[in-house]
Amino acid sequence: MNDLYGVIGDPIAHSMSPDMQNAAFDDAGLKAVYGRFRVSPAELPDAVKGIRALGLKGINVTVPHKTTVMPFLDELDPLAASIGAVNTIVNQEGKLIGYNTDGEGYVEGLKKVIKGDIASKEVLIIGAGGAAKAIYYTLASLGLRRIDITNRTERKALDLMEACPIAIESNYCTLQEAEETLIRYDVVIQTTSIGMFPDIGASPLMAGRVKAGAVFSDIIYNPLQTTFLRKAQYNGAVIQNGLEMFVYQGALAFEKWTGITPNTELMKKVVLKQLGG
Ligand code: NAP
Asked: Is 66 designated active site?
């Protein structure tokens, strides 16, 4: 019999995870099927009971359940607990364990484009939502020199920084201040939803003053090149879109479920095809 996996969220119809994970299972020679399940917030408790009752081996969790699913699990990985969000559940013989692979997935992708030791970098994160938190806490755990945050809502950025269990040099700045001091950063990470399809002309910053050799990344993957990235590239930055983060967060989930490292090149190809890239 096939092992069962899936993703829960609402909406879920456009999730690219099923095609990506099914291709990875086939490539690894595993008998497994990964489906998509639309679960409304009111149905979440029953859905988790269903995971247990039906013996699903692993689940990805997406918007709006990443935080609300946590009380229904038996155990939380410390990083997921500190981030306050779960995107991966492992069913370990009936015990449901929650992980967050978003931040680690992002860092795996970043390592492909960054030169030198990641810990020596000065980083600016644009945004203070769920994805920003996962990335900030994961980077903090790597002992980075400095991670600043700029965000429309100052309080949200301060809350994120104050709740981080790892002490790190970190300051908040307004979007305008970030624009003026952009040249100091080795890595600038755009984590807001600004510039995402269909609002593709929008950008949180002008990305005008770029440090030589700096990496500018945007975790949006639709479009593959946001206005933010286009401007940064024009001004000399090395750029990276959100495709790698998406692929590696899925690859890390796959590893936790199966103990096998999946074919990430294949996974990337499958997602690119879905995006029409
Ligand atoms: P979220 O928790 O809702 O956070 C949204 C962030 O965007 C907040 O910082 C918010 O600022 C900012 N924002 C939204 N609209 C804005 C506007 N009009 N002006 C200024 N700031 C605005 O969302 P999330 O889960 O972190 O996701 C953010 C983005 O990352 C989405 O585009 C999502 O698709 C993408 N993402 C990609 C991956 C991947 O695998 N590549 C994974 C997760 C998420 P305020 O705090 O001021 O509201």
From this structure: yes
